[in-house]
Amino acid sequence: MIQNIQKYSLNELIQIAEKKYPLTFEPIKIGGISLSILQIKDLESYIDKLAQTQEQIELPFWAKIWPASVLLTHFLLKYIPTNSNKTVLEIGAGLGLCGLFLAKKGFKVILSDIEPDALLFMQINILKNKLNKNAEVKKINFIESQNIEPVDYIIGSEVLYLEHSYRPLVKFLSKNLKAKKENEVILSQSYTRKSNHFFDLAKKEFHIQQKTIGYKSQDDTDNEKFLCNIFRLKLKKYV
Asked: Keyword annotations for this protein (predicted)?
């Protein structure tokens, strides 16, 4: 992991990333806001190339923009009132899509992940979009129930894929969400993914609301509709 990543310029960070990955900036527009998001160029080809040259590969799932992230961003921009005094933590942020759009809208945002390269890409995206006054990156491992300065919102997309993380994640969320009635944890995941055990654990601490939303691919050759579930969690003692 790069030490003191905030001390590097945009060009210096891009040069570091280019030594490991083929890069491209892609324009992403959600809710009338446009951002330029750094991605691995032709991710599928990159993974195929890795598979040909390495016996064991670690798939860069953090580098993919998941439909659940896009839908969560739509939801947040539409339903969460903008307030520059409100703080947001995105866990398992990957490229930081959701948090970057909230930073653009004026929230104070922490983008977090445990993958060093994810932190690198997120910091590049912050600088590329001139969001360094509203956004910062931080390495956070919620499985270790790491404590931070409590925030008004904790958000995450597709973070419920490891069952052994469920119990420490519930503990992390309850500890690091500010104890106020209006504050929430907002999570999204694919409609087909089931994480019942997590919600069985979470309902001991949180009141949970669920909403299903979706969108159709803009690709003319692909009529697939993506569905995801949005979960809004509020601490029971403040509901």
From this structure: Methyltransferase, Transferase
